[in-house]
Design a protein that fits this description.
- By secondary structure, the protein is mainly β.
- The protein has no helices and seven strands.
- The strands form two sheets. A five-stranded antiparallel beta sheet has the order 6-5-4-3-7, with no helix packed on it. A two-stranded antiparallel sheet has the order 1-2.
- A hairpin with a 4-residue loop joins β4 and β5.
């Protein structure tokens, strides 16, 4: 059996130098231009232009890292019954 190996560069950003946010991650974002986006999916991080794209309720938003006031990770956990 052949083992298939694949790699992918995952882009990330930080606004406070301690918490990193990655493409594919669910986050809550407070931004000066669009307000609060809860459960938004980080779709793409543009390192060169200091921007990122998120999907929220079926809409795509291009946000500047300079206008973001707060980002928090959304931890979805399964609760055992």
């Amino acid at each position: 059996m052949n083992n298939i190996v694949a790699t992918k560069k995952i882009r990330a950003f930080t606004i406070n130098l301690s918490d990193w946010f990655y493409e594919g991650q669910m986050v809550d974002i407070k931004d000066k231009s669009v307000g609060i986006l809860r459960n938004a999916l980080i779709e793409y991080v543009d390192e060169i232009n200091q921007a990122f794209t998120v999907i929220h309720n079926g809409h795509s938003y291009n946000l500047s890292m300079l206008t973001v006031e707060d980002v928090t990770s959304v931890n979805r956990r399964r609760i055992a019954v």
